[in-house]
Hints:
The protein is an alpha/beta fold. The chain folds into two domains: 32-117 and 236-291, Periplasmic binding protein-like II (D-Maltodextrin-Binding Protein, domain 2), CATH 3.40.190.10; 121-226, D-Maltodextrin-Binding Protein, domain 2 (3-Layer(aba) Sandwich), CATH 3.40.190. It contains 13 helices and ten strands. It has helices at 2-30, 41-47, 56-64, 80-87, 102-107, 145-150, 167-173, 189-198, 209-217, 245-264, 266-274, 277-280, 283-286, and strands at 34-38, 72-77, 93-98, 108-118, 121-125, 157-160, 181-184, 204-207, 223-226, 234-242. It has a five-stranded mixed β-sheet with strand order 2-1-3-10-4, with helices on both faces. It has a five-stranded mixed β-sheet with strand order 7-6-8-5-9, covered by helices on one side. α7 links the parallel β6 and β7. The termini are far apart.
Amino acid sequence: MIGTNIIRLAMSHVMKKLTSLVIFVVASMCSHATTLLLDTQDTIDVLHSVSPPKNMTEEVLQLVFPKLKNVISSTQVLSHKRIENLLDSDKPFCTTNRLKTTQRLEKYLFSAATDIYSGLRLYRHGSTENLTQPKNESKNQSLPLSTLVNSESKNILAVLANHSYGDAIDREIVKINKNQLYIFETINPYEQFINLFLSGKVQFIITYPEVMQPFIESDEYHIIGLEIAGESQFKFGYVMCNKHEENHGFISELNTALFSLYDSGKFAQIASKHLLPSQAEKLNAVLPSLVE
């Protein structure tokens, strides 16, 4: 009887040890785990190899995602507003394809660059011949966004809700007449946003040349792109996380995977494929800044 009790006590002690070990292993595997918030199901399908990537962000993330499975607890598709709210919570959340701004740098963590695009432009329907030009301005001179839009008081500019276009353009958007702004919000916003413009329901949008070029080349549309004063030649996108302790580890592992793409030349190869040819020729001058 005594021997049986001793065996039971020993087995109980062993089981407690094993339980503690399992808990420790699971906790270790989930350390630095974050929830990745996305605004389109398309990106999740790409990450899980259900569909091919359609842009540079998706192609880069598809390459690094297999190395991050232990540090991403789940993925969710949400509106920009909901993503912004969760990023301001006390749980570890991250999102993709975000620009760095002065305000964001104070609040969030950023990865190394995951994508590169040409600088944003203002697109409108029509042609250069019927473009209303502000008085005393040269047609060869880049103008502030607010000047370009406010000079055509009957035309509407659509912008994405809870979306930053970078410091310079964000400052200009607040100067635009309120009755000329249409704030567009939905899940999976980008395709619907472009279609809103192509349908003629709004006259202006701000987007990347790489996005608009196929429509400019089409005989179906008459679209012109206008350079915006103060806009940079290239825009870099990043994974952006709140400053939860676990996200520091996630960002570190993501950066390790990204630096491997930089060093191998794969990042430059992908960028060259997605940029306009004229911009791809300038890549060598800007890529070194990614690892500074």
